[in-house]
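Internal QA ticket QA-208
Title: Verify multi-chain structure generation after dependency bump
Assignee: T.L.

Test input:
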Amino acid sequence: MFSRRFILGAISALAMTVPSTATFADEMYIPLVSKGFQHQFWQAVKLGAEKAADEEGVRITFEGPDNETMVDRQIDMLAAALANKPAALGFAALDSQAAIPLLRQAQEAGIPVVAFDSGVDSDIPIATATTDNVAAAGLAADKMAEKIGGKGQVAVVAHDQTSRTGIDRRDGFVNRIAEKYPGIEIVTVQYGQGDHLKSTEVTKAILTANPDLKGIFGTNEGSAIGVVNGVQELGKKDLVIIGYDSGKAQKEAIKSGLMAGAITQNPVGIGYETVKAAVAATKGQEVPTLIDTGFFYYDASNIDDPEIAAVLYD
Amino acid sequence: MSTAQETKPVNLLSRLIDTGAHQKLLAFASLVALLIGFSIASPNFMQTSNMIAILQATSVNGVLAVAVTLVIITGGIDLSVGTLMTFCAVIAGVVLTYAGLPLLLGVVAAIAAGAFCGLCSGTFVAKMKIPPFIATLGMMLILKGLSLVISGTRPIYFNDTPGFDQISRGSLIGEIFPALPIPNGVLILFVVALSVAYILGRTVLGRYTFALGSNEEAVRLSGVNTDAWKMAIYALAGGICGIAGILIASRLNSAQPALGLGYELEAIAAVVIGGTSLSGGRGTILGTLIGALIMAVLTNGLRVLSVAQEWQTVVTGAIIILAVYADMVRRKQAK
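Actual output:
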């Protein structure tokens, strides 16, 4: 008979057979709880983590909530990860404060925590694998100066004025210009929440107000695409656009010459270094507290280089 | 089991245990089967700390599901519960952190804000005759926007309100039985569930809740002010969302203004798995509680088994469909 018990029983029996790897008790287990899961950036982080796991012979899982607002879901994921008695833990906090009780629990159980991406605002993690966003945005400033010939007006379309990455990228760019390029004036910094459409509107407003603008820096994928859209809609030519991260649209804009180039983080490296550091920590080895996973500048000339192509995503 | 006869007032105990006992048994058996299945599959599943993690994961969704059960029994739907929860959390943040008022006032303000918003939804539905789906969809968006506006799009932290995080994270039970540190959030879920079960089973409001869902026209023709009762039910559901807002804010020690979208669907899923009919007139709080627990056990169990995340979602969706299908097959047989 079709009782619900029967059906659910069958399903859970099925579920048992799926993760046969779960029974390898002697294998070292390292769960990574991320800020996201389905975005290409996070899939690239996962790829790097899996690569390191293969090399080290450890088992990892990679999980993150559907979107970056679901703080409580991330906490539930962390709790389930800890229930599995992991050897170490990788964690990219959506909200550090909310996770502190569980991180303490991990610390008390002697489970080393490695923070990745934006890190965890606490002294519990033994290491943080992340991009040096200030330096990366500084490189964007250098490239901008080079392209516009060291003088003129530029603007910044940033994605956020409160998050760590938003602040670091903005300041990294603005400060580098102020320090090294006295001929360049930053006329405005505007925020588009990383939303394509909002960033487009912001860009059009900036261009309308500053007809002599030479270049714009978009601080993340959404911002950069928005800048490209805005420039296209207004039919502006000869404007230097420098973006951040990758994604299909941004890569195409670079290939077609609409965008001069972009900074890419190394998401694969973030995942890779996180697992490497976690394994080292379980063996009692020294781990640097800050692991710079690196960044690159790419443009039409090197976008297909194997080294660059490996860290770009669609 | 239960049909429209449930409109008769029944005492609390029978509402909880006897009414539709057969079906509750089925849902409960599914829950037990899941627990046993996961325990066999992973030695790490059945631990006190993991069971507590499951209960804690249930607490917010459970309270929201209880709220939405009320509305669904009247034949309506409430899509605003998730963002209303967030809105109430933000209100608590404003009262406690920005205004620095005492803890109790923050809690009262959150619940009052929830009840008021529920009353607004109820007015749209009952007085302005806007279909519940649309009215609460509008409320969902309004509240999501207002949460961002009021908070200035930043999380509001409760560090200046000592004891606030203990509402959900603390454990009164753990102080008495140190081996069983069940968080207060879970306790609050059960208190809310018991109270609503009492209201549904023992009070006039409960009787009209079922009656509205079974045959609103008949109730209206018999001289009952159906509009007023409907508004009262939406307001009650809103107040319960306020409690959920306090729970989640306390658990995160912060009001996260962008959170909440999507939570209404999980609450509705729990209600439906628990055997409440989306066409109204039928449903129990115990069923909803079990439904919420099934969802949480499933999510946690699949995680502990390290099932890939994309498959977790597939399995959860399949379970919802199977649970409702099994319920319908069984009910057809019962006829």
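Spot checks passed. The radius of gyration of chain A is 22 Å.
Status: verified.
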